[in-house]
Amino acid sequence: MEQRVPAMVGRDDEQEQLSAFVTAVGGRALILRGETGIGKSALLDHAVGLATPHHQVIRAAGVEAEAELPYAGLHQLLYPLLAHLSGLDDGHRAVFDVVFGPGQGRTPSVMSLGIAVLDLLALAASSKPLLLVLDDGQWLDASSIEVCGFVGRRLAGGAVKMLITVRSDVASRFDTAALAELAVTALTDQAAERLLDAHHPRLEARTRRIVLEQARGNPLALLELPSYVSGGHAGRPGDELPTLDGIPLSRRLQHVYGMRIQRLDATVRAELLRGALDGVAAGPGTNRAHGVRYRMRDIDEAAAAGLLGTDPLTGDVVFRHPLIRSTIVQLATPNQRRAAHAELARVHHDDIERRARHLAAAQIDPDEEVAAALEAAANSATRRGGAVAAVAWLTRAAELSETSADRSRRLGDAAFIAGHAALLDQARELLRFDSAPGGRSPSPATVVTTAYAALYEDGDIRSAHRQVTAAIEGPHTGHEPAQTLTRLVNLLLAISQYAGDATLWKRARHLTTALGDRLDPRSAIYRDAWSDVVRHGEGVHERVEQAFTASPVLEPWDLSRLAVAAYHADTLSRYRPHLQRAVDQEVETGAVANGMTMLHLIMLDQMAVGEWDDAERTGQRALELTTSHGYTLFAHHTRAYLGLLAALRGQVEHARELQAVVDAWARPRGVGFLTQIADAVGTTAALSEGDHEAAYLHAIGITSPGSFEPYAHQASRTLLDLVEAAVHTGRLQQARLHAQAALDAGLPGISPRLALVTYGALAMTAADDNEAEELHARAETGSAETDFPFELARIRLAHGIRLRHTRGPRTARPLLIRAAEAFDRLGAAGWAERAHAELRATGMPDSASPSYLTALTWQERRIADLAAGGLTNKEIGERMHLSPRTVSSHLYRVFPKLGVASRAALRDALSKRGDEPPSH
């Protein structure tokens, strides 16, 4: 027998839409948005009534008391489903263990956690469709909202629906969640009169008129105001509420509830206060996570007063409306609230973050034990992607510190995290008293914040460098905590990197060397990798790998710094999975500034391995993020990389526009890192359109032939550009000098990319054909084809041109074909055109498919067989001990050899050759 759904007054349209929502095939998400008391919760009850016969219904509610606890709302929503975790794979179980349980490891990104949640929901809905109902969504913590938004946008095609209510007068992240919405507006005059008359049929005319005017179509007001107006407020019947006119409706209703609360016994009020402060839910079905929140006792009097109800699903006591809960808190005195928080801290002694929150609110006087608990909670929140909560708890910990040293240290930690969370104004505010009376020098923690802001907001290299070096050299640095010194050193290295100036780098090396064993080992890696990889890069990639291995769980700033070091050592690809797991979490809920760096690094690796469309999308995302947060340096850094990508693709006009913008901003400020990239954009754009003279002039602006400018990171990166431009402009002596200088400097031993371009440059400049062949073979050795396809294609094109002139067209064709294929696949328009022109010069039309293309290697044949059998790149890689990217690269070569354009055509193409792919 189906449950009877009670009728609602004036909500026919909303009920019809909810009925369509509940009965629609497939998954959906819907937000109900309206003011306080407008009837959103009643509409949720209506939807639950419709769904209950056919759906498993789970209800939850956001509460203000938990708005700073990462994933508290998500835990409440998923708590009844956690029994299904055993049905998930190990990876997804581990994700939930880290977020909700005792699992160790880095908090997953929104995407990783969202995918795990989708799998859990799909499993739970496999036997019966699932309806998730979330009331007061605006009070959910930011982390939970991000995951709910991610999940809600991906429910189509499943058996899960999500229904959320949010207040229209309270901003939240649901405002930008891109979910379908249904606006819940005030009742019409006629509907308001019907509702009032149905529940209060014997109101005298004057009172009825006052209620209708005051309620303005708000259902909760229509139900609650009559008893107040007709004599429930201090015994003055018929008063027209002169003290409430002009006050928002929610405040009027709080006044109504407050009268009922004040009539209660003091012990009952204290019990209600503990429940309200700990987030006891409002509304049925919203308090499902047993043992998590305070359970109120001996509260029959409050229930009789209409303040409480009972959850019909669980039997839990709940507040009838969120306004009741907030009114209870507002009516309590400060001492009453502190006493309630102290009791709740004792109740939650095993929950580090919840206990810390209550301790912070309970304490007035400095208390080191409480301050330490808050500090531990902040560390936990940082690991869980809750930077904002971490800043708040550290700030409170500083206020409760018993010594000035601990207070200063905790304020410094709060400011440091705030800076990395793109909250620079808040970071400055935290340290506003630290610069001190009497002309005392600013503390190191203050310098970290002010110099950081000067660098990233304004690109003020000189000021930032001056402040940081003075702080490191200052007389009190030796008494600072090691962490503060490390922050100063790392900031100095970042400033020096952006400066790209030999003098500043030498000063930085001198200062860091003088620190001796006080220099953090990771800082030494950053210094050697970021400064001058030609002179200090030997062994860096091994040190980076050791650092990652030694610290599997890294703070976001250390992860991004080590990845920058990996970029300079050309081993970034192996660490990109770390970045991709972390970037969404940091961009959305954590260390936003580090998320910007992570996006840059992901883009660089996508460019290196030939994923140029993805790189374009990543760059645009980074540009939006950096500009929206006012990180001007990072914004121009992003434009520089977008300009370089445009130049690679042959979009030379756009590339030069970006080059000009970056150069005009960076050069007057002395941001040499960016001016070097701008020069590299000019070099690449000129090469792309075949203007080798212009390319040569740009390249020698970065470094002179035969040398690698000290502390110029683009000097080694433009090695191939300078040599190739010199060869094509008849400057063979300069070309040979530069290629030989690379070999003499030991570049092949520093990274696989430098080995590739060094031997490729030597092959281009070799006077002897046999020597050129040998050097080209050395360039081809290794994994360069999958890791650096653009550089390898350029080297093949150059060698193919040489072979055409020295050994004839037939010998040159295989290399030219492979170069043309690579340029076509990458979208390097200018280079592809040049390669096809060379192919035509061999007598081969563009449409020809010579026998060379049809010959598969054993490895290519095996990969093709497995792909034709339906295996994914990941599955093929696991069988053949290859990375999925390597498998993809092989398939790119297999397709044109077999004359097909997709995996679906592989089986037929292989069978025509006489072999069926093996079954598996």
Which short descriptors sum up this protein?
920 residues; mainly alpha; Rossmann fold; five-stranded parallel beta sheet; two-stranded antiparallel sheet; 7 strands; disordered C terminus
Tell me the distance between the termini.
50 Å
Mean pLDDT: 84
Helix content: 55-70%
Shape: globular
Beta-strand residue percentage: under 5%
Radius of gyration: 33 Å
CATH class division of the domain at 12-183: Alpha Beta
Q: How many beta strands in the DSSP annotation?
A: 7
The helix count comes to 48
Structure class: mainly alpha
Q: Please state the second-level CATH architecture of the domain at 12-183.
A: 3-Layer(aba) Sandwich
The major β-sheet equals: 5 strands, parallel
CATH superfamily of the domain at 12-183: P-loop containing nucleotide triphosphate hydrolases
Can you describe what's shown?
With 920 residues, the protein is mainly alpha-helical. Among the domains are: 12-183, P-loop containing nucleotide triphosphate hydrolases (Rossmann fold); 189-246; 262-332; 788-848, no CATH class; 854-912, Winged helix-like DNA-binding domain superfamily/Winged helix DNA-binding domain (Arc Repressor Mutant, subunit A). It is built from 48 helices and 7 strands. The strands form 2 sheets. Strands 2-3-4-1-5 form a 5-stranded parallel beta sheet, with helices on both faces. The chain has a two-stranded antiparallel sheet with strand order 6-7. β3, α6 (142-152) and β4 form a beta-alpha-beta unit. α28 (576-589) runs antiparallel to α29, α39 runs antiparallel to α41 and α41 runs antiparallel to α42.
